């Protein structure tokens, strides 16, 4: 599951330069898109950077991270990779990638859950979540992040995780080359054994800054005898 993630501070120009290493063909910046929210505390309804295919090119744009579909009464931030029938229109036309540094998960006893930052070992400065996007009735571009069962080494934090694409998967995902069957089998599984996670300091809505993803050791309680 992914309910909060870190995006960092790459500008649209920097993101375009980075994505040239992963994609073939023309990359287009969307000059009319609302400014995405930068930082280390990205939450549902925030405006996030994303890229999707458009007329033989890839458009780098932004969208609200939350989708509301007429056939569902709930607003969605995640889309399960197993629910192909529910998302069938998006598998055909609605795939996107969302850049991030990693995501947060809460783990521990009920009522005392602690935040953890989860990422993968990599050479690139960013990783990319697979997702879906759409235009809602008000004309707003919206998106969800795709999830799948968690890799073994992080399943104790949460049973699900975002689908994090390998560099080799990004082009085929955006170009509709990856089928739903192939995706359910392998998409986002190549990072097994390369996940990194650590506890981070408590996070609230106003928290931000690079220290949010740094390892955190809570102060030891002192006792007076």
Fold and architecture overview:
A hairpin with a 5-residue loop joins strand 9 and strand 10. The model has no long low-confidence stretch (mean pLDDT 92). Helix content is 12%, strand content 32%. By secondary structure, the chain is mostly beta strands. It has four helices and 13 strands. The strands form two sheets. Strands 2, 3, 4, 5, 6, 9, 10, 11 and 12 form a nine-stranded mixed sheet that branches. The radius of gyration is 18 Å and the shape is globular. It has a single domain, classed as SOS response associated peptidase-like (hypothetical protein yedk fold).
Task: Provide key terms for this protein.
13 strands; mainly beta; 4-stranded antiparallel beta sheet; 4 helices; hypothetical protein yedk fold; single chain
């Amino acid at each position: 599951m992914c309910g909060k993630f870190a995006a960092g501070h790459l500008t649209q120009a920097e993101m375009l330069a980075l994505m040239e290493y992963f994609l073939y063909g023309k990359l287009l910046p969307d000059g009319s898109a609302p400014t995405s929210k930068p930082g280390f505390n990205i939450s549902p309804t925030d405006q996030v950077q994303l890229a999707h295919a458009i007329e033989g090119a890839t458009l780098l744009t932004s969208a609200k991270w939350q989708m509301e579909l007429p056939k569902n009464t709930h607003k969605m931030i995640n889309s399960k990779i197993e629910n192909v029938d529910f998302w069938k229109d998006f598998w055909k036309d609605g795939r996107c990638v969302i850049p991030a540094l990693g995501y947060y998960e809460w783990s521990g006893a009920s009522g005392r859950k602690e935040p953890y930052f989860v990422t993968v070992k990599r050479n690139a400065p960013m990783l990319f979540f697979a997702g879906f996007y759409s235009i809602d009735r008000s004309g707003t571009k919206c998106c969800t992040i795709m999830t799948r069962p968690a890799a073994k080494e992080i399943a104790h934090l949460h049973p699900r995780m975002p689908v994090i694409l390998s560099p080799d998967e990004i082009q085929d995902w955006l170009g509709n080359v990856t089928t739903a069957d192939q995706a359910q089998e392998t998409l986002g599984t190549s990072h097994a054994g390369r996940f990194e996670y650590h506890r981070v300091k408590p996070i609230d809505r106003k928290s931000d800054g690079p220290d949010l993803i740094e390892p955190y050791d809570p102060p030891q309680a002192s006792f007076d005898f």
